[in-house]
Every structure is written in C-alpha cells, then in structure tokens.
Design brief:
Blueprint (H helix, E strand, L loop, with lengths): L2 H16 L8 H17 L8 H23 L13
Helix pairs in contact: 2-3
C-alpha cells in the first residue's frame, strides 16, 4: 500500500472514531459565528448555557445583522431583511 493510500486510510479510521467527517468552515460561516458570539456578549448571554428563548433571540439578532450587512455590501434593499419577530 502506498504512503498516500495509507494516510487516507488512517484519516478514514480517525473520522470514523470521531463520528464522521467534518468540513473546514467557510469564511462566511466563521464571520457569522464571530457575529453570533459578539451579539451574545452585547446582551450578556452565554450561548452554551442560554435558555432556548435566549438562544432564539441572539440567533435571530445575529441572522438579521448578518443579512443586513451582506445586503448592504451587495447593494440590495435592506427592507427585504426582516426579523422573525417583526409584525
């Protein structure tokens, strides 16, 4: 077995032990995650110990903020970005 194939086999074993494969997060995913934790900090919420209601709130604030920033960069209308809790 060549060294390259052996290395791939080892990666398969490690992935199986870890419960499956993973993908490196994209730049957009990292940007959103940073924003989410900034929002948590802004509102004094620790995401991993937050209630379901707190998580929904910070996730929605982060989503709307992220989409508004993206729309602004792309020159799209901001009115199209609406929070789930808007009437």
């Amino acid at each position: 077995m060549s060294a390259d194939l052996d290395a791939r086999y080892q990666i398969d074993i490690l992935a199986q032990q870890a419960g499956g494969y993973f993908a490196v997060p994209s730049e957009q995913e990292l940007e959103y995650t940073d924003l989410l934790f900034d929002v948590c900090k802004q509102f004094g919420i620790k995401y991993y110990s937050a209630t379901a209601k707190e998580r929904f709130f910070v996730e929605e604030v982060a989503r709307v903020t992220y989409e508004r920033e993206r729309a602004q960069r792309q020159g799209l209308p901001l009115a199209d970005v609406r929070p789930a809790f808007a009437s």
